[in-house]
Amino acid sequence: MTALLTAEDVVVRFHTKKGVVHAVDGVSLQLEEGEVLAVVGESGSGKTVFTRRVMGLVAGGRGTEVAGSVTFDGTVLTELSGKELSRFWGAEIALILQDPMTSLNPVKRIGEQLTESIVLHERVPKREALARAVELLRSVGLSEPERRVRQYPHELSGGMRQRVTIAIALSCSPRLLLADEPTTALDVTVQAQILDLLADLQARLGMAMLLVTHDLRVVRSRSDRIAVMYAGRIVETAPTATLFAQPRMPYTEALMNAVPPLSGPNHTRLQVIPGRPPDLLHPPSGCRFSPRCPLAQDRCLTEEPPLRDAGSAEHRYRCWFPVGSPEWSQARARNLERGVSAAGTPLTDEKVLT
Amino acid sequence: MADTLSAPPTTTAAGPATRRGGSRRFAVRRVRKRLTHLLLVLLAVTFLSFVVVDLLPGDAAVVVAGDNATPEQVQQVREELQLDRPVLVRYVDWLGGVVTGDLGRSFRTGQPVVEALAQRIPVTFEITIIAQLLALLVAVPLAVYSAYRPGGLVDRTSMTIGFGAAAMPTFVFGMVLIVLFAGGVSSILPATGYTSFFEDPVENIRSIILPCLTLMIAEAAVYRQLLRSDMVSTLQEDFILMARSKGLGPARILFRHALRPSSFSLITLSGVNIGRLLGGTVIVETLFAIPGLGQLIVQAVFNRDYMILQGALLFVAVAYVVINMLIDLLYLALDPRVRRDA
Questions:
Q1: How many CB atoms are closer than 10 A to CB B43?
Q2: What is the rounded CA–CA span in Å between residue A48 and residue A280?
């Protein structure tokens, strides 16, 4: 089966006054038709830049260096000119941004923002496009769609606005939807509604979706596969169920432990990941996660582990001491004994025992 | 599933008063507020100018009576012009006239002030408006393209020229234009004078080209700089990224998505400038010998022609407030968000 989207060794570097920011550093992944792939990582892991590079919204030139290739349904997007690319934008590949408060034009009516891409890509008259817009708004669960098309964004709540941006993204029936933290800026109560709406529309329209988030819980029941990103690299990728059942990379495990469990006793202490997200100006040598990893050994500081298979090609990870392996037990025991990881991160029982 | 979609739980829009009828009502309220404002401003401006003019050294009666007048003649003139009465009485008297549309007569020529203003205002108005339009016509495309390619050739060139133009005194530029087009290098345009549009439209256009160019150049430079920087920051907004991701072309994104949200400070500044220029563009009017409001005011000051001066100042104040009111209404039209915060 050929993939709908193939990203190969995608690199994005920003040359700034302070130095070179290695935002995305050799990311490869594939997405099948109709599949939901979640890209998970902390802020600064490069997931947003990666999605924009996939689409071509981040391009080379003017201090931005890009490499690698992105292929969409047989077309190599990374070889296209801006003008050729824009024929795919909105029509074949659509984007939803994080904050619906800023992603809609404040001085244009909802209807106009919805119809412009329909008119552009499908070449239908404005009246017909407006009727489609009303239908779209209805399908994303907005009440009184006939009234909404005449309203301005500031007259809608955050959840309603995100429904509008979803309607815009879906207006030309794209085959690939890139959702960049679609619920991060929303109220908790609205988040689930929007995610369920997205999942429902995705299933109904059969489009593929790249769901970018920093919250593993969000994607647990709403994705087929997960790719965990750290410091511009994929550090673990697996089918969703496998990843949750058996994370191999300590970072993935740490992400899971950093959110409250769904079941279990109340007042369980959450485990924070020590340190800060990596400085992309000076990425750590060796394993990128080693400065923060409680299991880090000397080898982790000097040698970067490759992305290797865990039993099947479906599940791949980057770690010298994968969680659950005998090496991992030894590394854990050694670090616990000396009370500090090889990188000098102090650790307590709490942080290592899972 | 259809049930959950057709009855979503979060659909609380802002109040119903924000729809179209509401915004019209809002505009009316705003105009009313501005008009009240206008009255207060006019009272303050005219009273202050009355008092200040009265405090000016020199005596109107002496100036009007002429150099060789005897003290008796001066006294006679003073009584004729009623300058012997206290300033407050004269002000109230003048104000009474204003309400009935009578602005008095010139001390020197006896010409009704309304008539003098009616001759001068159209001249200044024409030059001001055309200069503004030219400035915007030049500045907006340059600013938009500069913002689209910041640091590019167009941006850098227009910035350098603009800084030079803004730094150069108006009259220097005016004289350069005269040398170039009216007598020096070529003589295709008149250097001085003004012809009314109704007398000879072609000659009218020819006579205002140089004054308008002189006025617009510095304005265009400032407008370009202002709109460019506002537009550069608008282009960083998420909704521009969103517009790009829809596949819209650069022209549509720049003019249909970015220009309007970027134009608010430009409009404000343009309004202030129109108001200021309507009050007279003394230097340009003097340089090109144009019978505009600025000249009238300067002459009135020198001649102690208080009635003319009062009338002109009244017009300037009204023009200023009215222009700003129009700008205010323009905001309402351009930015739907303004319609809400009252």
A1: 12
A2: 14
A86-95, B11-20, B90-99: least confident range: B11-20
Mutate to test the interface with B, among A107, A123, A139 (most CBs of B within 10 A): A107
Sheet holding A75-76, edge to edge: A19-31, A5-16, A64-72, A75-76
Q: Where do the structural domains in chain B lie, given as residue ranges?
A: 16-108+306-318+325-342, 115-302
The ipTM (two decimal places) reads: 0.87
Residue B18: list chain A partners with CB under 8 A: 155
Q: Does B2 touch chain A (CB under 8 A)?
A: no
- What pTM, to 2 d.p., does this model score? 0.83
What Cα–Cα distance (Å) separates residue A128 from each residue in A144, B116, B285, B290? 18, 59, 56, 56
Chain B 254-273, CB below 8 Å of chain A: which residues?
257, 260-261
Q: Cα separation of B25 and A45, whole Å? A: 50
Length of chain B as a residue count: 342
Residue A71: predicted pLDDT: 93
Give DSSP secondary structure letters for B195-240: --TTT-HHHHHHHHHHHHHHHHHHHHHHHHHHHHHHHHHHTTSHHH
Whole-angstrom distance, CA of residue A316 vs CA of residue A239: 10
What chain A holds in terms of domains, given with CATH numbers, is 1-92+174-193+200-245 (3.40.50.300), 102-173 (no CATH), 258-312+321-338 (no CATH)
What 8-state DSSP symbol labels residue A340?
B
Nearest C-alpha in B relative to A113: B243
Q: What is the CATH number of domain B115-302?
A: 1.10.3720.10
Residue-wise pLDDT for B289-313, tens only, equals: 888 898 898 888 888 888 888 899 8
Q: Is the dihedral of CA A194, A195, A196, A201 positive or negative?
A: positive
Residues of B in contact with A162 (CB under 8 A): none
What type of residue is B326? L
